[in-house]
Specification:
- The protein is 30% helix and 18% strand.
- A hairpin with a 4-residue loop joins strand 10 and strand 11.
- The mean pLDDT is 93.
- The chain is globular and about 60 Å long.
- By secondary structure, it is an alpha/beta fold.
- It binds S-adenosylmethionine.
Length: 336
């Protein structure tokens, strides 16, 4: 049974057209603000198979999802991930899906960039917080910047449009961000900065790392001319144009400016849990209805019920009095 033509509208009238799928909770990096060093990962047997992920995504597409982002963990470390990408690309060909994209740390891009482009992926987000190899190793705990750079080059050569995402971290990369901006724009890439969100226990104190982007913007405005523009990519970033570089810069501000009023997203984990909000704990189990029958009716009903519970928004706080994370799960569970 197909659910084509129906659409998912939440209780606040927001239409849900964007699905982010965390295909694995595993990652080849351990970014200090994202994960603890000794993370316990899910047993492989708990993961949905690639076929199950495809079936779930397909039902979402039939129910009105137009943009699908694969994330993680690191999506490109999931075994046979390109099989899923290739399967999903049929929805691009049919026109049911407008965009298939992914968020990656870039470490495996040299291997996969060409095939991604071949499958109809046009744009990707590469997460990169510093251009300094030593600092890169420190923040990722064991990442190799040269591999990421090779990945970016391979993606450029394959014709993929790249957006660099950097988490703004006080005392770590704030002084470097002007240089990163020039570097990204010099290569024709957008740069988006993100406020660190209180998700999951990490080994550091988030209060020390938190840099409000209102402050970063004020600092940047001493050197650059930033003009707000209405550009949108379907996500939460607000964009400015930078006169001196001719490039675009995005700001994702979950803390200083809540952007929930226009939220069009839900998030699926690799075990089939649906999170209706990145910053809330409520979830819906889609694995049970997926496995309960071969048809998709139970699944579709479970999705409708979950969308009916999508909350108005998140309420992240980072201050000295609020030491516990807003949500217990790490970003690697639901992805960026
Ligand atoms: N491994 C992929 C990558 O590195 O892009 C995808 C998953 S990663 C969890 C997605 C994004 O979330 C990355 O840009 C990462 O920097 C960001 N991120 C992780 N933890 C975060 C946090 N606590 N606050 C804000 N952004 C975070």
């Amino acid at each position: 049974m197909s659910f084509a033509g129906s659409s998912m509208i939440d209780p606040f009238g927001r239409s849900i057209s964007y699905l982010r799928v965390s295909v694995t909770d595993r990652c080849d990096f351990r970014c200090t603000y994202c994960m603890a060093e000794d993370m316990a990962f899910l047993p492989k047997k708990d993961l949905l198979s690639l076929e199950e992920l495809d079936r779930l995504c397909t039902v979402f597409i039939e129910k009105g999802v137009k943009k699908l982002r694969l994330t993680g963990g690191e999506p490109l470390v999931r075994k046979n991930i390109m099989h899923l990408v290739r399967q999903l690309s049929r929805h691009l060909e049919s026109g049911a899906l407008e965009e298939l994209t992914l968020t990656t740390n870039g470490s495996q891009l040299a291997r996969f960039a060409r095939e991604l482009a071949d499958c109809g992926v046009k744009r990707i987000n590469v997460s990169l917080d510093t251009l300094d190899p030593e600092k890169f190793r420190t923040i990722t705990r064991w990442g190799d910047l040269s591999k990421v750079m090779a990945g970016i080059e391979a993606a450029e050569a394959a014709g993929l449009k790249i957006k660099i995402n950097a988490v703004a971290l006080k005392g770590f990369n704030d002084a470097e961000l002007p240089e990163m901006l020039r570097w990204a724009h010099g290569r024709g890439m957008d740069l988006t900065v993100i406020e660190t969100m209180p998700m999951g226990e990490i080994d550091a104190d988030r209060t020390d790392q938190y840099l409000p982007l209102s402050q970063l913007r004020a600092d940047l405005e001493r050197r650059f001319t930033l003009t707000d523009i209405p550009y949108k990519t379907g996500g939460p970033a607000r964009y400015v144009e930078v006169a001196e570089t001719g490039g675009r810069m995005g700001f994702i501000t979950p803390l200083t400016h809540n952007f929930c009023e226009s939220c069009n997203r839900v998030r699926l984990t690799c075990t089939g849990m649906l999170y209706m909000c990145l910053g809330q704990n409520d979830d819906a189990d889609l694995r049970a209805p997926l496995r309960a029958s071969e048809g998709n009716e139970l699944l579709s009903n479970a999705i409708d019920e979950a969308i009916g519970r999508k909350p108005k928004g998140h309420d992240f706080i980072i201050d000295r009095r609020t030491s516990r994370p807003a949500v217990a799960r790490h970003m690697s569970v639901t992805g960026g």
